[in-house]
């Protein structure tokens, strides 16, 4: 139904050119799959990203619609967070990575993972 | 994943007279910049292209490829050529 190893390989494809970590989380913030230099980094990035996403989601007014994309410029890097099916996708990149590239990578991954993850989300 | 864009940017930068290249997406976010082009100008570049397209559409013509405007910004001894194709805008700085 869903091959976890393949998901990691897909995430790995986006973890190039200054992207330090690509993480897929469930809505509770638990890691589903990731491509990062270390497990520790992925867990930390994942926990922070999930927290930020949840806080912003809660403060989205109904008339504006649900939160679909978040981009953050931090002191030492850039972060993009989006939703794929019911899961959260997070990309952490170096400061020199352009925001457009980060967004394009997020969209490419979303297109690729949306259909298989939506099948799993039903269970 | 970004190899294609990097190759295009590198190829354009090597062209004669080109001193800078920038590609922006439809939101004005920079996809890549080389030479004297600054990533922070991606928003302005995309905005100029959008406004130019709106001006040409005012003529009531169809939005065929031939109608996509190319904008030339001349200053000093240099020129910036801006053209929007699909969701992306390309800007080339020429000396």
Automatic annotation (TrEMBL), chain A:
Domain of life: Eukaryota
InterPro entries, alphabetized: LAMTOR2-like (IPR037587), Roadblock/LAMTOR2_dom (IPR004942)
SMART domains assigned: Robl_LC7
Organism this protein belongs to: Entomortierella parvispora
Stated name of the protein: Ragulator complex protein LAMTOR2
GO BP, sorted A to Z: positive regulation of TOR signaling
Entry similarity comment: Belongs to the GAMAD family.
The Roadblock/LAMTOR2 domain, residue ranges: 7-93
Top-level taxonomy: Eukaryota, Fungi, Fungi incertae sedis, Mucoromycota, Mortierellomycotina
GO MF annotation list: guanyl-nucleotide exchange factor activity; molecular adaptor activity
GO cellular component term of the entry, any: cytoplasm
TrEMBL record, chain B:
A biological process from GO: positive regulation of TORC1 signaling
Compartments reported by the entry: Cytoplasm; Lysosome
Pfam family, one: LAMTOR5
GO molecular function: guanyl-nucleotide exchange factor activity
Stored Gene3D superfamilies: Dynein light chain 2a, cytoplasmic (3.30.450.30)
InterPro entries: LAMTOR5
Domain of life: Eukaryota
An annotated GO cellular component: Ragulator complex
Keywords: Cytoplasm, Lysosome
Transmembrane intervals: none
Family that this chain belongs to: Belongs to the LAMTOR5 family.
Full protein name: Late endosomal/lysosomal adaptor and MAPK and MTOR activator 5
Provenance organism: Entomortierella parvispora
